[in-house]
Amino acid sequence: MSQSRYDYDENSETWPYFVLTGLIVPLIPTTISYVWDKLSTSDDDDDEKSNDRTDNWFKTYNHDTLSKFKSNIQSKKLFTKKLLFIIIGWILVIYLCILANSIDIPVNESNFNPWKILGIDELADEKVIKTAYRKLSIKFHPDKVDTSKMSQLEMDQVDNLYVSINKAYKALTDETIKENFLKYGNPDGPSDVKHGIALPKFLIDGPTSPLLVLIYILLIAVILPLVVSSWWNGVKSYTKQGLHVDTASYFLTELINFNPAKLTQISTVLKDISHATEFQLIDKSLTPSKVESLLLSQINRTKLSPNDELLKYKVVSIAPKLILGYIDIASIFRNTEICMKLIDAHRCLIQALNIESSAKINKYKQILQLPGVSIDKLNTLEPIYTLGKLLKKPTISPSEFLSNDNYESILKYASNIPLIEPIDCKFKVPGENYIPPASNVHINLKFFIKSPKQLSKPELSKLSKNVIETQLNELETIENLKNPFKLVEDQPKIKLTNIPPYFPDINYLKENNGWIAFLIVQRDAKLAESPAFLTRVDLSNLKLTPDEFLKNSDAIVSTFKIPLTSPTPKEEGSFQFRLILKNLIYFGSDLEIPLNLNVEDKPITNTSNTKDLYEIEDPDEDSLAGAFAQLRGEKVKKVEYEDDSSDDDSDDSDDDEDGNDNDTLNTSDWTDIDTDTEVEEDALDK
Amino acid sequence: MTDYLPIVYDTNAKTLSLSEDVKLSDYKDLNLEITQLNTLIKDLINSNYDVPPPPTKESYTKNLSMMIKKMHASAVASMRAKKFSEAAKQFTVALGLSTARFKFESFQGTITEVMINLAGRADANMMMGQWLDAYLDCDLMCTLAANVPENHLRKGICNVKLGNLQEAKSDYERGLCFGADHPRLLGELANVNKLIAEENGEL
């Protein structure tokens, strides 16, 4: 290996650049994505501060352990591996930059810098170059330097220096040499192509070379396959919805063996969920029955031993995600019953409420989801079942009903729960005012977001002009027709207005608050489509006072559109559906609307006699298409011959069209023959 | 080695059963299938045919239908006489008869017979104010024959009485899909909408 054809990085001048490049390539994208994430979430954080934190006035039964767990999650979110990589990465970059800056690259063949040799600025003009050269050449001329006391080596150095000074001067003044220098970076013209390795020679040729070989082998034979296989396994073992494959297949078997004679309950779906493999990945000791008991203790609000309590939070944090995955699979089976129970289970886990434990809890579930309200303190003689009743027309004063000192905070929390007040809901085909058969249709729902404290809904005529023009009545502009969902996408992401106190993972709630929409066929009460999520809604209506909402024009209209994957039926008729919107977090914010799909087949009729501008013209008489059209008995455009007088020609063509006399027959016959032979000739040529 | 299912065959009774070595809770689904199979075998043995005749519209036990009709008639008579609990019992008996039909017969008549009796029992229960019992019958009727608006009307009324106003509303709306101008449904829908508004504090 001693006679290597490669240049090594003997003076350690190249490796900092090499390492710097290798470092910057992953570092910059990571930093950008990190900063982007931070910027996009910072808006939410601002809003959160403005919200009243429930912690201030209400503490859950497990407040100490729960808040510890929550802050753990938050700090984990703050100090991620990503952040560590970014910090260390940038420190290294700075260090390498300083290092690279301080490296003094000696002049040799490979880096010829005439300005540096002459000790002048790169922008210097010819005069300066000349004076610099003259000074140096006088100073270092072999005849002028006293070489008597020098060794051979020193003498050689002086000679070399003089040669390079000459070269540098020529490179800047002589035309041909200057061209060589600019082209090849070397005044001597093109030199051999050299390959450099950004590693010092001692690493390759010295005693450390086996080590390097070992590193190479490790990298290529062990680390690379390991990384690729672990990535591939990760891809393979999780479905698109982020469910573990084993979990998905368990859910699938449950649904295949679904027994319609058995009553589906929240407890049964929680039992299904408890078999998920994800729980075993958290802790090996988590058997399905253990997970089930932990989930039940969450909804029953029972306190466990500190250890189990921690496990419970971990289990409860990921259970809702599994429920959404289960819904996704159940919707393929069109199973409405399981989907509805799963949504209830989702809300029960988040609100820590077991609505199946007693009829009373089920009845008062909307009130019981509020923090600080419990069934034993509630005055259950009063028929206040809904948030609206509690805030607008309570039969007794709320403080008496809730028997809680913080009833004002509770009412504020309640008034921040968004409700949907529908305005209009219909099927829509972009650009049509009816539903043609076999067309791509979407559901268009217009609604107000309102607080439970707000009464009724504002009259549409009282809305501001801007709202009516842009949000209520969509203009059929090209943009809107091209992408009818743009209006929905332009709405802001739903912000979390309240923090449900019992659920351990706030980040999940931030990502998954909103409504899930099911479209159900009325005939068989099964799902028509996979569920859609309503995640983009402007909640600013919540902040309006009841008067502002009702009388002034500040209310905002929101839009939700659900594309249907299957086209409308091919035959005319009326098809009944039911649209169900269920809130993922709160009870009492659901919506059910019956929907009618009227498929009509209106033939396109030309009401006026004016010619359609975009109509396809009749083919020319003497073209192949024209010949075939004539054979089919369709109209063709007559050929106008230039040498004929225009008057005659127009007469002729009029006659032809009207009479279809012998003349035209002849011509058409001839054209037929002509075109035929042409085709045949073509075929023969080929 | 193949794993065999833990099934035991009793040659005397000509029935299958789950082996006693295993826990019943582990094999719930298997046990259900065994019971179903036993019912079929019993019917097959009782039919006195090697191969049961193909189920046609005509070939069914007409005697049973007569009995069901008589039972139904007397139940209706009890309803007229306002003896609702007695009527409910008679409807239950008629229901038992109609479900006890020979399993290899034409199934066509069974649904209608079951429906008539279920409707009768639901009405009797509703008259007595047994809303939960009535609701369960109505729920079954809505599954068996969704296109009859009256079924949804019954279910909706039960839901109103049980306090589930939103569910009642969607029941009425679903009923209206199958009979758009059903006057009673329209009336009840307007009624329940008012109740919902009241419950939400809107009125």
UniProtKB/TrEMBL annotation, chain A:
Residues 641-661, 671-686 have a biased composition (Acidic residues). Residues 635-686 are annotated as: Disordered. SUPFAM superfamilies: Chaperone J-domain, Sec63 N-terminal domain-like. Coiled coil: none annotated. Keywords: Membrane, Transmembrane, Transmembrane helix. GO terms for cellular component: Sec62/Sec63 complex. PANTHER family: SEC63 DOMAIN-CONTAINING, TRANSLOCATION PROTEIN SEC63 HOMOLOG. This is J domain-containing protein. The lineage of its organism: Eukaryota, Fungi, Dikarya, Ascomycota, Saccharomycotina.
Automatic annotation (TrEMBL), chain B:
This is Translocation protein SEC72. The lineage of its organism: Eukaryota, Fungi, Dikarya, Ascomycota, Saccharomycotina.
